[in-house]
């Protein structure tokens, strides 16, 4: 038995090819479980992300989105279950799986005493790019993401939005086949957000797979062609965007599945009083 495998993963079945494709799903999550003390964050979650899709993962706060993405990309060990990246088991074949991934996690810790250019070159070298190619790609990414003027600035001095963009550049520099991005537009200004959307659309249009988590339903509807709604660490609905949202909006479908919406009624009447 491989002692490096998470409990319950050694007998996980390798995923079959996605419907209509010649290969396995980009991401296949099988029976993922994660507990924190007495709290079950993810409860036996199963999910397939089709290759070439722009996939949105939505859910309320505490739904298990970040924990799910962390386990799917090998950043957090599950208590049970496993994840496959284009057929490679993240836990029994981590090098092959992670080579295919570009990851922008929540609360990303960067080597922030490097400049932006140094950080990107370093990440590129970690992914086995030669120095010249790493420097070339770093310069291109800094330019496209409007960070060229900050290339010689220490990352610790970046704003929150700039830090998010340099984190995305780190996820892209090795040319991954799958991007998993946790709240990629948080703290990003509208102009930069438009640039990021253009990059991600181009990536998906050319055969890459993008997985984003977000609280903003309108953004998911604008960008994604597939979506999964999760709550309580389980998938409530998953599939093509039009199939999941039905005849209404994604937000309507989300609220109907997740529940918890409260009518104001007579509450907070003091806020509705006219001044004077």
From TrEMBL:
<dbReference type="GO" id="GO:0016887">
    <property type="term" value="F:ATP hydrolysis activity"/>
</dbReference>
<keyword id="KW-0547">Nucleotide-binding</keyword>
<dbReference type="GO" id="GO:0005524">
    <property type="term" value="F:ATP binding"/>
</dbReference>
<dbReference type="GO" id="GO:0046677">
    <property type="term" value="P:response to antibiotic"/>
</dbReference>
<dbReference type="GO" id="GO:0005886">
    <property type="term" value="C:plasma membrane"/>
</dbReference>
<dbReference type="InterPro" id="IPR003593">
    <property type="entry name" value="AAA+_ATPase"/>
</dbReference>
<dbReference type="InterPro" id="IPR027417">
    <property type="entry name" value="P-loop_NTPase"/>
</dbReference>
<keyword id="KW-0067">ATP-binding</keyword>
<dbReference type="InterPro" id="IPR050763">
    <property type="entry name" value="ABC_transporter_ATP-binding"/>
</dbReference>
<feature type="domain" description="ABC transporter">
    <location>
        <begin position="27"/>
        <end position="257"/>
    </location>
</feature>
<protein>
    <submittedName>
        <fullName>ATP-binding cassette domain-containing protein</fullName>
    </submittedName>
</protein>
<dbReference type="InterPro" id="IPR003439">
    <property type="entry name" value="ABC_transporter-like_ATP-bd"/>
</dbReference>
<keyword id="KW-0813">Transport</keyword>
<feature type="region of interest" description="Disordered">
    <location>
        <begin position="1"/>
        <end position="22"/>
    </location>
</feature>
<dbReference type="Pfam" id="PF00005">
    <property type="entry name" value="ABC_tran"/>
</dbReference>
<keyword id="KW-0046">Antibiotic resistance</keyword>
């Amino acid at each position: 038995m491989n002692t490096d495998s998470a409990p319950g993963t050694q007998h996980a079945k390798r995923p079959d090819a996605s419907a209509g494709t010649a290969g396995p799903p980009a991401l296949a999550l099988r029976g993922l479980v994660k507990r924190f003390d007495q709290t079950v964050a993810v409860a036996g979650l199963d999910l397939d992300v089709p290759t070439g899709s722009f996939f949105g993962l939505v859910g309320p706060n505490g739904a298990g989105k970040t924990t799910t993405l962390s386990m799917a990309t090998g950043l957090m060990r599950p208590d049970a279950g496993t994840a496959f990246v284009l057929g490679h088991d993240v836990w029994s074949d981590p090098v092959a799986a992670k080579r295919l991934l570009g990851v922008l996690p929540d609360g990303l810790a960067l080597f922030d005493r490097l400049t932006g250019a140094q950080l990107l070159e370093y990440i590129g070298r970690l992914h086995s790019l030669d120095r010249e190619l790493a420097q070339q790609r770093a310069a291109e990414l800094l330019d496209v993401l409007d960070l060229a003027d900050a290339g010689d600035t220490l990352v610790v001095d970046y704003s929150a939005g700039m830090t998010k963009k340099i984190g995305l550049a780190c996820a892209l520099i090795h040319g991954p086949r799958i991007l998993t991005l946790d709240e990629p537009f948080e703290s990003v200004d509208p102009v930069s957000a438009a640039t990021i959307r253009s990059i991600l659309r181009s990536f998906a249009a050319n055969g890459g797979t993008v997985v984003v988590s977000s609280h903003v339903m309108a953004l998911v509807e604008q960008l994604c062609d597939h979506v999964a709604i999760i709550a309580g660490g389980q998938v409530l609905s998953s599939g093509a965007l039009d199939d999941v949202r039905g005849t209404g909006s994604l937000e309507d479908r989300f609220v109907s599945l997740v529940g918890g919406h409260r009518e104001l009624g007579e509450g907070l009447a003091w806020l509705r009083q006219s001044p004077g």
